[in-house]
Design a protein that fits this description.
globular, single chain, three-stranded parallel beta sheet, alpha/beta, five-stranded mixed beta sheet, Peroxisomal Thiolase, Chain A, domain 1, about 325 residues
Length: about 325
């Protein structure tokens, strides 16, 4: 049985939205003309009502939710940062439930053009994650959300959140945009230690894996160091962006949705555009396993929570 949104009206439900782009960025609004009817309304819509903070607040307003209503912008990690905030508020007792959203829409094609010129996006328009030919990511669009609540309140359980954490690389010699394998590894280790999970028992890793020349190498190195010490079984590696491209601010929640679908169907979908493993990654495969065909998967039962309030999806 699902939850009727009407039953949540007036409740302490939080709304957390990850987004980076605004829905209209046409520069400065027209000068307000006192003698032109509607001039003020137009200017207000071009400025105030196009602000991103209305993304979550409109949801809270329309549904009469009384919990936090937050817009989170941490670039490509926005929606998972929003999920971390939602999870922590639930664990602290600040909310009774949470709606976590990710949204990314491409309204300005010139951004694609200069990102291709800069070497961020693939000039071929091919998302070849982990492949030798990888030359950047492909932009995509997504709007998706998750409903989080405590286990004892749930009517239906798709998955169980054991840990959610956020960090940042700090100052790096290679510059702000260069990813840090060390920082990623540290965060992974902190996450499974807090949840008291044996990393060797992990049976599926859904990677960020964008298909950029530098990013994949740093992330795969971090995953290997964090999860593959003394590992005897292969660790399947999923890469959502090979299938649909990079939905940027929404990509984290999009990947979680993919994992839930894999749970439900007991099958990890294949990563596409994978022909030859990038040379720098060969040392990590195996035990890491690039999923290139339908991979049968039994996620098993959720781990028993230490108390009845563990957050679920």
């Amino acid at each position: 049985m699902s939850v009727n949104p009407q039953s949540l009206r007036g409740s302490n439900t939080g709304v957390y939205v990850g987004a980076t782009t605004t829905k209209a960025s046409d520069g400065y609004p027209d000068y307000i003309q006192a003698d032109v009817d509607g001039s003020l309304d137009i200017a207000m819509h071009q400025t105030l009502f196009n602000s991103k903070y209305f993304y979550p607040n409109r949801i809270s307003f329309a549904n009469d939710f009384k919990g936090p209503s937050l817009l989170v912008d941490t670039a490509c990690s926005s929606s998972l940062s929003a999920m971390t905030m939602a999870y922590n508020d639930l664990m602290l007792g600040n909310t009774d439930a949470a709606i976590v959203c990710g949204t990314h829409m491409v309204f300005e094609p010139f951004i694609n053009e200069f990102q291709v010129e800069y070497g961020i996006c693939s000039p071929r328009g091919v998302s070849a994650v982990l492949d030798e030919s990888a030359d950047g990511y492909v932009k995509s669009e997504a709007v998706c959300c998750l409903f989080l609540q405590r286990r004892r309140d749930a009517r239906r359980v798709y998955a169980q959140v054991m840990s959610a954490r956020v960090n940042v690389d700090g100052k790096k010699k290679m510059g702000m945009l260069y990813p840090s394998a060390d920082a990623q590894e540290q965060l992974m280790i902190q996450s499974y230690r807090v949840a008291e999970i044996d990393p060797a028992r992990l049976t599926y890793f859904e990677a960020h894996a964008t298909g950029t020349k530098v990013g994949d190498l740093q992330e795969i190195k971090a995953i290997y160091n964090a999860y593959c010490d003394k590992r005897t079984e292969p660790l399947p590696l999923g890469a959502m962006k090979s299938n649909m491209g990079h939905s940027e601010a929404s990509s984290g929640i999009t990947s979680v949705v993919k994992v839930l679908i894999a749970y439900e169907n007991e099958c990890i979908p294949p990563n596409i555009n994978f022909n030859k493993l990038k040379g720098e990654l060969e040392r990590y495969f195996p035990p890491l396993l690039a999923v290139t065909k339908k991979h049968p998967y039994n996620p098993g039962s959720p781990l028993p929570p230490p108390w009845g309030g563990r957050t679920i999806l």
